[in-house]
Automatic annotation (TrEMBL):
Keyword Signal assigned: yes
Annotated coiled-coil segments of the chain: none
Pfam family, one: Serpin
Keyword Signal: yes
Protein name per UniProt: Serpin peptidase inhibitor, clade A (alpha-1 antiproteinase, antitrypsin), member 10a
Species classification: Eukaryota, Metazoa, Chordata, Craniata, Vertebrata
UniProt source species: Sparus aurata
Gene field: serpina10a
Amino acid sequence: MTPSVPLALVGLLLLSLVSSQTINYSVEDLTNRNADFAAQLYRSVSSRTDDNVFLSVFTLSTALSALLCTANGPTQDQLLQGLGLTGLDPQTLPGTPEGSAVLQGSIVMNLQQGVAILPSSSFQVSSTYLDLVQTKFGGNAQSLAYTSPQETVDTINRWAQDQTGDRIQELVTNLDSQTQLLLATAASYQTRFSPSFNSSLTQDERFYVDRYHVVMVPMMFRADKYFLAYDRLLKK
């Protein structure tokens, strides 16, 4: 069966090889770096909670990469280190359109995504940076009145709905009225499991939302031999 998920799964490749003549980074290298970023992020989040954790590395990497393109000095170094891209040139790393093309050519279908720079009406953003976000990440910009938080929340959520075909209904729930700049990303796609699950083996089972809430959901089953990994830092 082919489930549809509203956000990207941990470990998906955001940065991809555009051309061996223009970029010397291998797909394998970037894939490994992004997988390391995903693992470090999961460790950080899961160490703070015992609840279920779902991470959208794809959307988070997009936002941080968009910031990376305009950063310099210690901020750029910290972003490169955080994304696992130390030693690479931020200006020559591919943007979202190229990454999407590779994703769509592999396991991802019907990928819909968006990037937006959302400054307050009194905040000026460099036109050079806005052009870069538009050309490299396919993003856009819109000034918002953060002094009217609910109106701004509604505007951002409508943007997310438009970008993802209504699959993401609520990107934000509340905002600080003193916000000066917000960088928003949203993505929705379908993906296939390989090998595919046998739909006839799907049955309702318990899913533990947290320690107090249990719901019945369709569970897919497949019997096989699998490799098992253990993370000593997480004790999982």
